[in-house]
Amino acid sequence: MNPGTTVILDRDGTLLDFYEMFHRFVLDLHRDEQVSPPPREVVLGYAYWKAITSGDLHIGGVRVLDRVDDVAHRYMAHGTLFEGAVPAITSLFAAGVRLALVSSWVGTAPTVELLDRNGVGHCFGQVVTRDDLPGRGEGAPDADVKITLARQALVHIGHPPGDRLFVVGDTAADVALGRDLGASVVGVRTGNGHMLPETPPEGPDTMLPSVARLVDVVLGTGGRP
């Protein structure tokens, strides 16, 4: 078996279906501030998320951006891995593929707990988030955080130059990371993947419906990396 392959996986929208945990967070904020919440489809819409990240959205007296890290730190128990993620991770690990999870958001410890609950924590040589940067990378763009963390992860898990490298994600930051690392970029349509361009270089090299099909791309028909 040739173990010369590494896969860097994004978390939110790629492995993690975060919609329920995010919705619960928003509902709890409305309850605490004694404000009626908008419909679920509004809360889970991209415009709502952009209003949060821009700092414009307030619920009662709370600026939501000031609390949004609670989603990853306190609500991970309500998150689930996308269907097919566990067998895909297990198959890649069994084939000798090195795996790392890199997120530009926070929540390293809850992420490790989530992976362990799903029986795949041991498959990852490194799990890193913005929590692992000094000062949590205050003010640094997602793409820059991902590149810094991914380079650290590659060193930690022993990825040598010349080995095959894949970056898997659902956002433009994931595509930018793959291009920076000279990796093959795999996009998924889960999460925000529906907004990714269809073709390189702005889009991924390969687009999949979900991470469940990742084994086909990484291992190919021969079943070896």
Task: Provide a short characterization of the protein structure.
Its EC number is 3.-.-.-. The protein is α/β, with parallel strands linked by helices. The protein has helices at 19-32, 40-43, 46-53, 70-74, 85-94, 108-117, 142-157, 172-181, 214-218; strands at 5-9, 16-17, 58-59, 62-63, 80-81, 98-102, 126-128, 164-169, 184-188, 206-208.
Structural Rg: 18 Å
Major sheet: arrangement of strands: 7-6-1-8-9-10
- DSSP helix fraction: 25-40%
Which percent range describes the beta-strand content? Answer: 15-25%
Name the CATH superfamily classification of the largest domain.
HAD superfamily/HAD-like
At CATH level 3, the topology of the largest domain is Rossmann fold
- Domain tally: 2
CATH architecture label of the largest domain? 3-Layer(aba) Sandwich
Q: What about the largest sheet?
A: 6 strands, parallel
Shape: globular
Specify the structural class: alpha/beta
Number of DSSP-assigned strands: 10
- Intertermini distance: 8 Å
Name the helix and strand elements from N-terminus to C-terminus, one letter apiece.
Answer: EEHHHEEHEHEHEHEHEEH
Number of helices: 9
**How would you state the average pLDDT, rounded?**
93
